[in-house]
Design a protein that fits this description.
alpha+beta, 10 helices, single chain, disordered N terminus, 12 strands, Arc Repressor Mutant, subunit A, 3 domains
């Protein structure tokens, strides 16, 4: 859990101070009602929490009297230290009842994460998404190296292997994915958003839902083992509705054989995509295992 930078407070107030800090950093603004609704406290208590926060971090907030909202200043410095994994989980799943870790008598281990986004980049992106604003970024791609782009982000995406922002790219006049770890600089002074062209409603691959059917690999020696892995009965398949923009990432993450005749090694690819030609006609599968650029599926 993040720990306060200064001062001694009760655990409950410390949690509310963290809420102010978190929303300011990742949303760009916070109100007293945010605390009232989150913690079920009186408005007067929320007022005292903001007074204490501004005492501890006097340069972090500006109060907008017309909108009755506290906004992040350009001098903002986090009052708390942030663990990246905790932050990503909070952005993904929301907040639970408490922030303290539970006692865990059973040892649980997991494969380590090899890459995580820079929290300042993540915060700038999440603020732009919340406010509906465009960003100027320096971006390093595998194909073209470092270039400067103007983007309009509308969503954050965790593919299971990396985090990216789904955004309208003004340089290419289309919606694209931008890996957060490849963003080297962010500037929030881009031109205003052209909503009829650049908003999430115009991202057709994001709005379109495609139905995937995943089956135990037909060349596997013992398909029953695979069925048990995924809770399937004999002859059953996994049916998944997924955004067209996300289909390739899902198939890659789960090692799904997308070749036309399921020809990949079943010891490595335990699942296969049913009717890959149909799916390829609806989504771009260039990163999916077994996809052939030459044949188009």
């Amino acid at each position: 859990m993040p720990t306060t930078a200064t001062g001694e407070t009760s655990p409950n107030q410390r949690e509310r101070l963290w809420q102010i800090d978190f929303l300011t950093r990742f949303r760009g603004q916070v109100t007293r009602q945010d605390l009232v609704q989150r913690f079920g406290i009186a408005l007067s208590n929320a007022t005292r929490d903001f007074a204490l926060y501004r005492q501890l971090a006097p340069d972090n907030l500006d109060y907008d009297h017309s909108d009755k909202v506290y906004r992040r200043t350009s001098h903002f410095q986090p009052l708390f230290t942030y663990d990246r994994e905790h932050t990503l989980q909070t952005l993904t799943l929301g907040q639970g009842v408490g922030l303290e870790a539970c006692a865990q008598p059973i040892l649980v281990d997991a494969a380590p994460t090899l890459n995580q986004p820079n929290l300042e980049t993540l915060a700038a992106m999440s603020r732009a998404i919340y406010a509906g604003k465009a960003l100027s970024i320096a971006y390093v791609s595998i194909s073209s190296g470092e270039t400067f782009r103007e983007i309009v982000p509308h969503s954050l995406v965790n593919t299971g292997l990396r985090w990216h922002a789904r955004a309208y790219c003004r340089n290419h006049a289309e919606f694209r994915d931008f890996v957060l770890t490849r963003i080297t600089a962010v500037d929030g002074t881009a031109a205003p958003v052209n909503i009829p062209v650049e908003s999430i409603t115009q991202d057709h691959d994001w709005q379109a839902i495609v139905s995937l059917e995943l089956i135990p690999h037909p060349r596997a020696a013992y398909t029953r083992a695979i069925e048990l892995d995924y809770g399937l009965e004999s002859e059953q398949c996994i049916k998944l509705p997924v955004r067209a923009a996300m289909a390739g990432y899902l198939l890659r993450r789960w090692g799904v054989d997308c070749s036309p005749e399921a020809t990949l090694n079943p010891e490595e690819y335990q699942l296969a995509l049913r009717d890959p030609k149909r799916v390829a006609s609806q989504v771009r599968l260039f990163i999916a295992p077994g996809f052939s650029v030459e044949t188009g599926y």
